């Protein structure tokens, strides 16, 4: 029992440090790219989109492979390999003399970046029916807490130089790897392992499974648009605020800490109050509408304080995601839930490949001399439009389902 509790504590710390490490470098990444490429920060956004692309693409290809390797060799070696890879990535970023070295680091992180997936499998291995939900809840808690702490510390460390947050992230991650090497036990017993199979490690296979669910095809497409629209903020926030309002890395870090806090409040508290009262469908419509409103307000913000105020409706829109997934889950048999969630995760990975390139290049274009007019908020505007389209598709899909149910009852 002591060993199991220590392992759960280590997994929580691992995920927390992973998220803190990523959050540490977000505030300074635009200035580092700008420095290495000798370009202004608005042009650096397109290069930053390429870095996000190479990380997401390598993770999309390699995450299923790492997961299957974990089924054969155990969780411990895969998790330690992932932590070591992240540490190496941060060192590449810290010492990178040219922009090309940033690509090498991000590719390494994408290949080895299976820490969340492997940690989830580890928790499943050591949990029982009574504590499984509580243990899995630590994943969300670690992510939320890490995204509050990481950007705030990264912004403060930037005062010691652009490279300081990268050194801090590398030290944290490698210390965690060293601790895990000596402390972390294996969770997967030999009798529960299976041989590695390439056909089961195919990342495109999971996407093909979505064709099995025609009844929720509209909701799946709605979710795709939500994921894409969200990259207007996720991939573009630091470049936009530095360019538009001359924010320092410290201010970017503070703003992202506020984002993390608001998301944590919505996900941990507000959803439990609002969704039971108004139901999943209305939560979807309300949440997507608030997302759209927040994005449109970001697009036309003219003062720094507006970005903080407009975060409120945008983050309140977070009630839509869980309701959307709950509705889709309700249309799938219990023995296919894992398959559906795996397919949706692969879908999110694909949008993480497309979204950063789309949004950062849109920002770079509409802040360049080539644009027909100057409009730094173009990516937010597109995100708002995508959210509105997503709302319309979700409404039509749920309305059609209701009409099918009524017709079925009338026929009977």
Distance between the termini: 55 Å
Average pLDDT for all residues: 82
What is the helical fraction, as a range of percent?
A: over 70%
Number of strands: 0
Number of helical stretches of at least 4 residues = 16
The helix/strand order is: HHHHHHHHHHHHHHHH
Briefly note the structural class of the backbone.
Answer: mainly alpha
Query: Spans with pLDDT under 50 lasting ≥5 residues?
Result: none
Cα shape: globular
Strand content: under 5%
Profile the largest sheet.
none
Report the C-alpha radius of gyration, rounded: 22 Å
What characteristics describe this protein?
single chain; 412 residues; mainly alpha; 16 helices; globular
Question: What does this 3D model show about the protein?
Answer:
Helix content is 80%, strand content 0%. It is mostly helical and 412 residues long. The longest helix is centred in the middle third of the chain and has 51 residues, at 249-299. The radius of gyration is 22 Å and the shape is globular.
